[in-house]
Amino acid sequence: MIKEEDKCPQCRGNKVVQEKKILEVNIEKGMQHGQKIKFEGEADEAPDCIPGDVVLILQQKEHATFKRKGNDLFLEKEISLTEALCGFKFTIQHLDGRQLLVSSTEGEVVKPGHFKAIYDEGMVDWQRSYDKGKLFIHFSVKFPSAGDIADEDIATLEKVLGARPVPSVDMDTCEECTAHDVDMEVEMRQQRQKAEQQAYEDDEEGGAQRVQCAQQ
């Protein structure tokens, strides 16, 4: 117990006072999502107790262009069919403001889903600043819009890419059919709805039979 006249005018006998303190946080290059920065002994203090730590957990914001996995960066890039078949050249605005010119060998074919890597253009390793990750480019190919292709263009394409295979057809048993464009998301949704409706109807029929048996 502390006598009223002996109490500190600041803490009024609580032995602690409120204090505002600014902690400067240094985010170093290469630090990752979820990484912790600890300030030892900077938590609340109490009499006869060892003060705890203030721990900051980094939360990495999503970027509109790049995706990060560890020290590697990933970039989605869409190229035209002409670029995919004949070669490409494009620029990338990097995170640090530099512009990278990326090109392929003329005539090199790039398939949809193909990856290419640029070494040492990923993130800096937090503990080894001399070590950098890779920049991976994931390619998708934009095909021409739906429409008719002129006969002379078809002949040119076949000359370059090779003639189309001609199937062996038995006219007595073969039936000609048409392949239609389809939205697979709509198709799958309709299939799920049919399955749910069928399951509901089966439950209804089963319930009616059980009620009838109970009445007998």
Characterize the structure shown.
β5 and β6 form a beta hairpin. Strands 3-4-8-7 form a four-stranded mixed β-sheet. It is an alpha+beta fold and 216 residues long. Helices cover 23% and strands 20% of the residues. It has a domain of 77 residues: Urease metallochaperone UreE, N-terminal domain (HSP40/DNAj peptide-binding domain, Sandwich). The N and C termini lie far apart (83 Å). The chain is built from three helices and eight strands, in the order ββββαββββαα.
Structural descriptors:
alpha+beta; two-stranded antiparallel ribbon; four-stranded mixed sheet; 216 residues; HSP40/DNAj peptide-binding domain
Secondary-structure blueprint:
Elements: E1 36-39, E2 54-57, E3 66-69, E4 72-80, H1 81-86, E5 89-93, E6 99-103, E7 115-118, E8 135-142, H2 151-161, H3 184-215
Parallel strand pairs: 4-8
Antiparallel strand pairs: 1-2, 3-4, 5-6, 7-8
User: Helical content, roughly?
Assistant: 10-25%
| Shape assignment | elongated
Oligomeric form: single chain
CATH topology of the domain at 66-142: HSP40/DNAj peptide-binding domain
Average residue pLDDT: 85
Low-confidence stretches: none
- SSE arrangement, N to C: EEEEHEEEEHH
Question: How far do the termini sit from each other?
Answer: 83 Å
- Assigned CATH class of the domain at 66-142: Mainly Beta
CATH architecture of the domain at 66-142: Sandwich
Biggest sheet descriptor: 4 strands, mixed
The CATH homologous superfamily of the domain at 66-142 is called: Urease metallochaperone UreE, N-terminal domain
Strand percentage: 15-25%
Q: Report Rg.
A: 34 Å
Number of strands: 8
Spatial order of the strands forming the largest sheet: 3-4-8-7
Helix count equals 3
Structural class: alpha+beta
